[in-house]
Amino acid sequence: MRRTIAQTARNGQQAACALSRISFLLAAITACAGAQTTLIRNATVLTVTKGTVQNGSVLIENGKIAAIGQNISAPADATVVDATGKYLMPGIIDCHSHTAIEGGVNEGTVSDSSMVNIKDVIDPTDINIYRALAGGLTISNVLHGSANAIGGQTIVVKLRYGKSAREMIMQGAKPGIKFALGENPKRQGYPGSFFSAGPVERRYPGTRMGVEEVIRESFTEAKNYQAEWKDYNDRLARGEHPIPPRRDLRLDPLVEVLEGKRYVHAHCYRSDEILMLLRVADEMGFKVRTLQHVLEGYKVAKEIADHGAGASTFSDWWSYKIEAYDATPYNVAIMTRHGVVVSVNSDSDELQRHLNLEAAKSMRYGGLSETEALALVTINPAKQLGIDDQVGSIEVGKSADLVLYDQHPLSNYSKALKVWIDGHEYFDRDRDLENRPKFEQRKKELLDKENAKPAANGQKAGG
Fold first, then answer.
1. Cβ atoms within 10 A of the Cβ of 375, count?
2. Of 25, 84, 360, 395, which one is least surrounded by beta carbons within 10 A?
3. What DSSP assignment string belongs to 97-141?
4. Residues 88-113, buried b or exposed e (16+ Cβ, 10 A)?
5. What span, in angstroms and rounded, lies between the C-alpha atoms of 418 and 416?
């Protein structure tokens, strides 16, 4: 009997997985090389925060930007990259990503799952990391899903493909936690919901009111828990020997939110729910760091700015769900003009490969300048993640997270040629093109080997 379509598809998937591993190992070999002194010269340097340097050069030493200017000499041991006619910009930063966590996005069985942590399920071999690098992306804020009013803990990673999961975690980046409003958390309260295959047990909440109350109730518990620990520590300081409160892994991260040690990233769409969350945050004494998606942010831009929240949104997504029907591509510009720090995010392994082009749309819809558009995927998300002192612009002393383009990065025809993270080169387009025939040949060899194996019933494949 001939092999089934499913078996053939499985073989293809296994071969693709094997190739992904090969690609990962090759990247690991490259990444293990020591950080070189590199001089990128004669580029149009788009610093984002310090203007544009024509025929500019950038010197990289010890993983940092050491000098920027037009007449920079290369040390004798430096690798020199001739960037004549090309454009150099900061590495792209995505404030909303689910990459490298397949199978670990949602813990949807409870309304408050703040005890779970994305950091524990990062898959450093995910080929989407390499594909994101090929689009100029260097940093991702990897989030829990939106099935819960309060979801899991989040982590900021540098896309150091070839490194371990632990080595991808960005040092100095404050951790976060995912909240969610609206359809996604409330639909879990009904049998036969969008995410379920059949009848399921109803889970509170099932309404927008319930979502609000879950957040308020959890923070009320967290404040009481915080007070118990404060009383315990105060008694210790007085020389007493009290019994410590019981440790609660669900409430610990919420106390960190109250103490400003963990950022809140809140999935939302509707303006009424945005206002609701901001009011609850004010009531409970914490700040919302970024409103994620926030497609109706333009309606309440002043209130968002007054609270001090950022907005991480889509460029022009619309009508893919009821909550998205009042969206407008002018959302980015309107919020920006009201003083909100705005970024454009991906929420997608595909879209993360061309966030530069998503940012460019704000020039057409709202009239943002080139620099303002570039800021949407560089310094603005860096500010939202609290890492703008390290990355997000080309400045002396910052990490050498850089992307070299063949054309202006806001052009639809641009291609990323090279990508550096901390001064290490993690993507080279020419090398990628050179390796593709080798990978295709290896894929063919793996498939031929798999197809040559005896079938499960003892007959040869194709027999």
1. 27
2. 84
3. E-TT-TT-S--TTSSB-TT-BGGGG--TT-HHHHHHHTTTEEEEE
4. bbbbbbbbbbbbbbeebbbbbebbbb
5. 6
Query: Is 33 exposed, middle or buried (CB count within 10 Å of its CB: 0-12, 13-18, 19+)?
Result: exposed
CA 207 – CA 204 distance, rounded (Å): 8
pTM, entire model:
0.91
CB 96 within 8 A of CB 141: yes
d(CA 365, CA 329): 6
Tell me which amino acid residue 21 is. Answer: R
Please tell me the distance from the alpha carbon of residue 400 to that of residue 79, in angstroms, as a whole number.
Answer: 14
3 state DSSP class of 366: coil
Q: What is the pLDDT of residue 340?
A: 98
CA distance 23 to 432: 10
The secondary structure of 283-335 as a DSSP string is: HHT----EEEE-TTGGGGHHHHHHHT-EEEE-SS--SSSGGGTT--TTHHHHH
pLDDT above 90 as % of the chain: 83
Q: What is the dihedral of CA 104, 107, 112, 118, to 10 degrees?
A: -10
- Give 460's DSSP letter: B
